[in-house]
Amino acid sequence: MLIGSLGKGFRLPRGILSKQHCTSLYSTIWQGEPTFLEAVDIYFEKAAKLAAATPDILNQIKACNNLLKLQFPLKRSDGTVQLIEAYRAQHSHHRLPVKGGIRMAPNVEANETMALAALMTFKCALVDIPFGGAKGGIKVDPTKYCLLEKEAIVRRYTSELVKKSFIGPALDVPAPDYGTGPQEMAWIKVRQINQISTVEQRNSNN
């Protein structure tokens, strides 16, 4: 049996891992473990067989609508400059706003972010919460940065989201996740409000 990458001890059910089913989805899956995103897609395909929906509708439900990849510099307290990598995935816009946490972890990457955004869509739909799914990630180990450095990272990340219309009360609502909490959410709120107010003031003066 293949062991999925969803955590220690996690195993994909045998019923999902029929060779015919997996081969139709991923030609290379039998060469090793499925990725997190592949595992989510396998579960989706299994459930989709029971849904009264056309293939086009199911493909639309499965697809990640938007993935934003960011890179920006951070000047650290010792004077060195580090390039920070970050993501925001908006899985489904079938209902707005989309909602999903922002995590800070050294293993953050695009496929994981899209997988978690998809799971948020499905979780909201299961309990009839009127949000689409989203997820954000900043590829850093937060324990290795001082408070001022973490604040600079979160504020710059928020600034980039605002510039690209990837955050807002009617569009995309962030939340705490692994490596983030109330302090990071407060930084996000302040930066978002200040930046939007500055843009609105500039536009009103033109």
Automatic annotation (TrEMBL):
PROSITE patterns in alphabetical order: GLFV_DEHYDROGENASE
GO molecular function: glutamate dehydrogenase (NAD+) activity
Hydrolase keyword on record: no
SUPFAM superfamilies documented for this protein: Aminoacid dehydrogenase-like, N-terminal domain (SSF53223)
Pfam hit, one: ELFV_dehydrog_N
GO term, biological process aspect, one: L-glutamate catabolic process
Keywords of the record: Oxidoreductase
Chain ranges of the Glutamate/phenylalanine/leucine/valine/L-tryptophan dehydrogenase dimerisation domain: 67-189
Gene Ontology cellular component list: mitochondrion
InterPro entries reported for this sequence: Aminoacid_DH-like_N_sf (IPR046346), Glu/Leu/Phe/Val/Trp_DH_dimer (IPR006097), Glu/Leu/Phe/Val_DH_AS (IPR033524)
Record family assignment: Belongs to the Glu/Leu/Phe/Val dehydrogenases family.
Database matches in PANTHER family: GLUTAMATE DEHYDROGENASE, GLUTAMATE DEHYDROGENASE 1, MITOCHONDRIAL
Identification of the protein by name: Glutamate/phenylalanine/leucine/valine/L-tryptophan dehydrogenase dimerisation domain-containing protein
